[in-house]
Predict the structure.
Amino acid sequence: MTTSMAFGNAQLARLLPEFMARYPDITVVMNLNDRRVDLVEEGFDIALRLTAQVDLQTAVARPVGRLRHALVAAPGYLACRGRPQTLADLRDHQCIVFGESRSATWTFMVDGERSPLKVVGALAANSSQSLRMAMLGGAGIALLPTYIVGEDIAHGRAERLLPDVQPLGLFGDQLYAIYLQDRFLPPKVRVFIDFLVEKIGEHPEWDAF
């Protein structure tokens, strides 16, 4: 199976020991990368992706869990720069952004409508894990998936900002198990998908903050 570097390192790897204990006869080979893979050419039974943008004529995308995002900053940064009270206040803060440009557009749901906001910062990176480490070090405010920063919020290493608005992620709000439509789904893959639905679902453990 294959999944993204961020999700594989942050969450999937910690779930695998329980799955392997429950199904000791199943061997798991986990491939971590952030590119789009060809299930046929590369021989993967399943891909876990944060998007449903697949060719649904040849593949099935089954939702296995809800993904949420949060605006976060380290307590030290907030002590120095203050806490934003509105979305507009983010323009006066150092925002660290995903990608290769120091500017980005973050989108929020406000009163049931999408509200885009352009932010500019001194740091951009194409790795959510790198953004997390920079945020924890006090570099600025980040918009990150809760599967990466949920534990940091729960343990006080990061503080959630503007909790009354709902940030929208770049890739969507669902984790999908993607597999070929015309291929017989092996029992080992079916039980793995069912396990993920059980352990993640609508209210994943990492959102308990």
User: Anything to note?
Assistant: The mean pLDDT is 91. The chain has six helices and 13 strands. The longest helix spans residues 5-22.
